[in-house]
Design a protein that fits this description.
Strand content: 15-25%
Radius of gyration: 44 Å
Largest sheet: 6 strands, antiparallel
Distance between the termini: 186 Å
Shape: rod-shaped
Number of strands: 8
Number of helices: 5
Amino acid sequence: VVVCNHVSYVDALLLMAAGFILAAGFGMFIGNSIRRPNDRLRAAVEGLAAGDVAAPIPHADYPNEIGIMARAIKVLQGIYRRAEDTHWIKSHAAEISAELQRAEDPRTLAQLAVSRIATALKAGHGALYVLDGDRRLAMQAGYGHRERKHLNNSFAIGEGLVGQCAMEKASITLTAPKDYIRINSGLGEAVPACVAVLPILHNDRVLGVMEIASFQRFEERETQLLDALMPVLAVTMEIMERNERTRELLVSTQQQAERMEKQAAQLEEQAVEMEAQQLELRETENWYRGIIESTADGMLIVE
């Protein structure tokens, strides 16, 4: 009986030790299963606080409290991302608009617009076409553009993407276009991944067309920046066009005033000459009248 009790006591100790080990292992497993997701969520929150709004939020598909926290952080990430995109759009739009308003002539305005917009969007190719008096869209400025013999620099309304955009008065976006101009750099050239063609409208009147091509697809904030800048560019072009017409009218008025001043001077000279001629005629008439009046009978004058 004593031996049996001793064996039972040892077995009980072994079972208790095994249970303790299993409990400790299970506790560590549960602790790690909670600590590791929490560590990943904490790292995601710290990255979000540091400004990394593009990092994925882990464990959003978990059906427990960790998943609820992850989904809440993901909502906050979306709000922060939208706020950052709004700030990016407004800051770039304000900066580019201020630079456009400092342009002194249409060509400088066109070059400044296409260069600054392409730089902000990290695009590799850009062109700005302006509607001329012949109702053709002629390229006035380019960014990363290389002239080639088989490529047109002007388009009629409805011709090509540029002319089609002007005719429809609507933006056209192509993804991975075929048979398109290659973006060239010092290291090589490649076909762009995305092409955006946008009309420049003022009071529903087409002033020009902007063409932008990039190796990357334009995200929503890039599209919103383009949509915000096109009306600003249109108003600036309209104001500059009116200023040009005003300057031309002023020059024409000044030339006309100079011509009228010359004509007035000529008329004044003619009036002086006519007055001198009239005075001479009166003196001649008085001379003849004096001779005739001093003659008793009469006289005949030949030549």
